[in-house]
């Protein structure tokens, strides 16, 4: 989990969805060649569908761009 710089957080103030977004963005930044939703899900303990939803929301918000989409 990510906490504020001072190391403290108020009870109930942890932004679970924001942390997931950050985790996905961090993994993608660490792998410039890209990762599949399945690979991201495996690394984060999430289903491929959950990652696909997160990626779609991040793209819709303009926080990431998809360069190509490959279908299996």
Give your account of this protein's structure.
The chain is mostly helical. It is built from 3 helices and no strands. Helix 2 packs across helix 3 (48-60). It starts with 15 loop residues before the first helix and ends in a 12-residue tail after the last helix.
Write a concise keyword list for the protein shown above.
mainly alpha, 3 helices
Question: Which percent band covers the strand fraction?
Answer: under 5%
The residue fraction in helices comes out at 40-55%
Structural class call reads mainly alpha
- First-last Cα distance: 32 Å
Q: Strand count, sense and closure of the main sheet?
A: none
* Helical run tally: 3
What would the average pLDDT be, to the nearest integer? 81
DSSP, total strands: 0
| Envelope shape | globular
What's this, in brief?
Helices cover 50% and strands 0% of the residues.
List the helices and strands and how they pair.
Blueprint: H1 16-30, H2 37-44, H3 48-60
């Amino acid at each position: 989990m990510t906490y504020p710089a001072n190391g403290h957080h108020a009870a109930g103030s942890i932004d679970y969805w924001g942390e997931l977004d950050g985790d996905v963005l961090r993994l993608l930044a660490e792998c410039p060649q890209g990762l599949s939703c399945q690979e991201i899900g495996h690394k984060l303990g999430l289903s491929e569908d959950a990652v696909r939803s997160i990626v779609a929301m991040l793209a819709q918000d303009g926080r990431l761009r998809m360069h190509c989409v490959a279908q299996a």
